[in-house]
Design goal:
365 residues; 3 domains; mainly alpha; single chain; two-stranded antiparallel ribbon
Length: 365
Amino acid sequence: MKGHMLDLLITRSSPSFVSLTTAYPSSISDHYSVVFRLSSPSPVSARAVKQLRDFRGIDFVRLETDLSSRLASVDTTLDVNTLVGQYEHEVLSTIDLHVPLTVRMKAGRHKEPWYNDNIHEARNERRWRTTKLEVHRQIFVEHRTEVNNMIKRAKRACSLRVSAHYESYFRVVTTLLKPLGIILPQSSDTDALCNDFATYFAEKTQGIRTQIRTTLTNDEDCSDYAIDCDSQRLSSELDRLLPMSEEEIKNIVRLCPPNTCSLDYCPTDLLKKTVGVQFPYLVVIVNNSFKQGLFPVTLRTAILKPLLKSDNLDKDLLKNYRPVSNIAFVGKVLEKVAVRRLLDNLILNGLHEEYQSAYKMLHST
């Protein structure tokens, strides 16, 4: 480390990142000089074939008009599974018409959060390398200084934005401290590893269900509590989920983050922009689901990602992983609406645990 004196070196556990570490005592200080070599190769730009949709030049007026025309043919009196199937088909057909899928070869370059279009355009001054003229070299030197200043300002602004929001701040810290990439057990057969995870998580979920059912059946305390609850005068029994109004569902959709899952037939950001056309059908789907007591079959599919619970656990043991599920946006809305109705009933009947803070709005843990 030229020009820097350290007596403490903290890195990841990767042995290839730091090498040739030597500590030299100093005759004029009680600190040691730590000299080491860093091996940080540039990331490999892996090229991959991807299917993409270019939404930048889309005509939202025409899109909303076609959506309204196609969705008018959806029969809202059908069962919720058929209704969701028709809704997805009409929305996806309209998107394919306006924004067809294109196959492109994309380079997997890592873009820094501070890098912007202005810096990219300013770096295009390359004439001196071709002409070798002195005047072009002077222009290049001046331009290089300006680009370096732009990069410094962009990095400073990015740091201020990150520090202003604690979620972004902790995300950056996690990225710096945790190993890069997804941690998975060592396996030469990806399909077999996926099947092992699926079997383990399914058995674990079934075990939890069985344990809850057994506890509620055999535990005397639970039985006494159930009798006490039945003896109370409840303001409203939760024998069914009441229909949601358009305003309630609209607020839930508005507060949802614009995250998109690969299972979404319509990107979340696009759905929010065309919510005026799609919204009436979302309301019908939600209320029909409550009325029929069914969660649509097509919305039960999830993309499951195993996440290691802690970095110091054995990555080859499946029990050290927890499942993280990504589901379609319409399924998320349906879940949030059902939770809202459940919370409304708990509040109405005063059934909230008084000293519970977790998972309660406006309560700190």
